[in-house]
Amino acid sequence: MGGTTFVSDSFAVVMLATAAYCLARLVAARRWKRPMHNDINVGHVAMGIAMAGMLDLSLRTLPAVVWEAVFAALTAWFAIRIGTFVSRNGLWGWDDDHMHHVSHFATHLVMGGAMLFMFLAQPAPAGAAGLGSVMGGMSAATAGGGGAALAYLFVFVLLVSAVWHADGLSRFGPVALSVPVSGSGTISVMGDTCPERRWLAPRLEAGSHIAMCVTMGYMLILLR
Amino acid sequence: MSDATVSGLTGTWTENRVGATTRPASTTTWRLPDARRCLQLALAATWLLDGVLQMQPYMFSRAFGRLMLASTASGNPSVVAHSIAWAGREIGAHADAANALFCIIQIAIGLGIAGRPTLRAALGFSIVWSLSVWWFGEGLGALLTGTASPLMGAPGAVVLYALLAVLLWPSERHRSETFVAARVVGARAARVVWMILWVGLGLLGLQAANRAPDALSEMITRMASGEPRWLAVLDARMAGELMGRGLGVSILLAVIMTLVGVGIFAPSRWAKSATVICAGFLAIAIWVVGEAFGGIFSGSGTDPNSGPLLVLIALAYWPLSQSLSARDQAQAASAEGD
Questions:
Q1: HEC assignment per residue over A137-182
Q2: What pLDDT sits at residue A187?
Q3: What is the ipTM, given to two decimal places?
Q4: CA dist., res. B136 & res. B81, Å (int)
Q5: What is the mean pLDDT of residues A109-131?
Q6: Per residue in B51-86, pLDDT tens?
Q7: Which chain A residues are within 8 Å of B24, Cβ to Cβ?
Q8: Do A152 and B297 touch (CB under 8 A)?
Q9: Of the candidates A199, B108, B166, B194, which lies 20 to 30 Å from B23 by C-alpha distance?
């Protein structure tokens, strides 16, 4: 197995796993009544399945035109979310959950746009399976134009978002608290001090986002 | 064993024994990134980009090791050249496995720097990795060949990663300093590093191979190969402008770089800021015109080259305002207190 095929197949597996996990989150959040951004997770499911299909043609599920419609709608939805967020909380404000800033939705707007961009740049497959044929065609489709620069602009936003999420992972960890107790000094207990604790598995959500950003960055770079 | 319980989600602690207090004595909480952390995150994003660029099909071919890497041996002393040639052959012979390992390492370094618990380990490992790649992958930045040019990425982009890892190391030994790079090694040492870097770049530009009349023009023309049309046109124009003017432009660049190098010692904050801004613009100009964005549009670029790293280094020398510096210091002191 060639290195490129191995990498593409590995990413395809990661994307399918991520999509399955985000689908499970949607079910679990509903069942356990835990707060979560449903639209973000629906977006992750769609992106995961679509990217797996682009990475390995044998995993294709829907025609490209359907995916284009899905991601156009998703992009428009996140644009609306940004507008609503800014009108309610201002440009620098926080969401009601005290966890998310407007950049959270802006990042997903870029992700939706990047997916749309990849599908629009992709030529009709000639029947061959695998990333090489699809991405090779995509390279030709974007060669010489501003497509490469736009692809790298997407990559920049995605990688910055990935490291930002990785930096924030420790927000959600339990911490040791020294609680003074009268007559007996202090006691140490594990707990957390942030209100976002009830958010459903925030570290895994961030991990899914990081995986999605890195995979999309990889695909966009092959697209150039 | 305590019977203390957590009462809620906002950090309010209760103790159900009579007479127990309810206020936490100390807590460790997540803080928004300060100036140094933002630079660390930018470094992490660059490592992540390197890892993703490393996954391009060319890097999985034998040519990556046997042609691209082995070509950096040329002109180096024999002991260096032999080691590079050997590494190139071995990497070429095991192209898939070797490159997959390189991808994983670079992505792991990027995510490691981005994660707070793994920051020190990732920065430390990045220094070792960078120096290895500088030797075996960049031929020591061609410093020993007499052909290293600041316009082409001298002294080797990857050694700048190591320098940044040192300058951004999470130490508060010199907490009161007003620029990020000084907090590890002190202001004087940090300024000396800056001067060596920029004056050194200026001197490299004056080497015979760079000051020949058409040297700069030919370098830029070579970079245009394989680039998108808009970038190739830009490079061709610049190459045309520089044709026959190698000596004059080399001297001009050397003078500017030397001024940038010594400008960091200026007494006023205004002059230091101007120096850092000048360095930033110079780095961007080098990146766009000389390095063609590190060749990342060509399919064979393994990193964005030295331009963005020089910008990051410049930002680490930006004189912070007193209030910002005090806020960062308070955060750091609070973190240490925890």
A1: HHHHHHCCCCHHHHHHHHHHHHHHHHHHHHHHHHHHCCEEEEEECC
A2: 58
A3: 0.84
A4: 9
A5: 78
A6: 999 999 999 999 999 889 999 999 999 999 999 999
A7: 177-179, 193
A8: yes
A9: A199
Question: Tokens standing for B298?
Answer: 């060509």
Furthest CA-CA distance within chain B: 88
Omega cis (within 30) before B155: yes
The contacts of residue B4 (CB under 8 Å, 6+ apart) are A179, A181, A187, A189, B13, B14, B15, B16, B20
What is the dihedral angle through the alpha carbons of B212, B216, B221, B222, rounded to the nearest 10 degrees? 80
Measure CB to CB from residue B41 to each of A145, A167, A210 and give the nearest one: A167
User: Is residue B21's pLDDT more than 50?
Assistant: no
B238-258: average pLDDT: 94
Closest CA to A164 of A218, A121, A213, A216: A213
**Contact, B338 vs B26, CB < 8 A?**
yes
Higher confidence at residue B164 or residue A33? B164
Q: Helices B187-204 and B157-167 sit at what angle, rounded to 10 degrees?
A: 170
Q: Is there a contact between B172 and B332 (Cβ–Cβ < 8 Å)?
A: yes
A145·B228 Cβ contact <8 A:
yes
Residue B214 CA: distances (Å) to CA of A142, B210, B234: 33, 9, 17
B56: nearest CB among A155, A191, A221: A221
For residue B112, give both structure tokens. Answer: 């490691």
**What value, to the nearest 5°, has the Cα angle with vertex B214 and ends B210 and B219?**
65
Q: Residue B143 half-sphere exposure, CB side, CA atoms within 13 Å?
A: 15
- Contact between residue B228 and residue B213 where contact means Cβ atoms under 8 Å apart: no
The structure tokens 């992009």 sit at A75
Q: Contact A187/B4, CB-based, under 8 Å?
A: yes
Domain boundaries, chain B: 36-324
Residues of A in contact with B45 (CB under 8 A): 156, 159-160, 162-163
Q: What is the DSSP letter of B197?
A: H
Would you tell me how many other CB atoms lie within 10 Å of the CB of residue A98? Answer: 11
CA–CA dist B128, B140 (Å, integer): 14
Q: Which of A156, A166, A218 sits opposite B115 (nearest CB)?
A: A166
- What are the tokens at B6? 């957590």
At A157, the amino acid letter reads V
State how far the Cα of A2 lies from the Cα of B98, in Å rounded to an integer: 12
Q: Which of A209, A211, A217 is nearest to A152 (CA)?
A: A217
Q: How far apart are CA B245 and CA B247, in angstroms?
A: 6
Q: How far does the CA of residue A166 sit from the closest CA of chain B (Å)?
A: 5
Q: Both tokens of residue B139?
A: 């031929």
Q: Which of B34, B49, B58, B119 is most worth mutating to test chain A (most A CB atoms within 10 A of its CB)?
A: B49
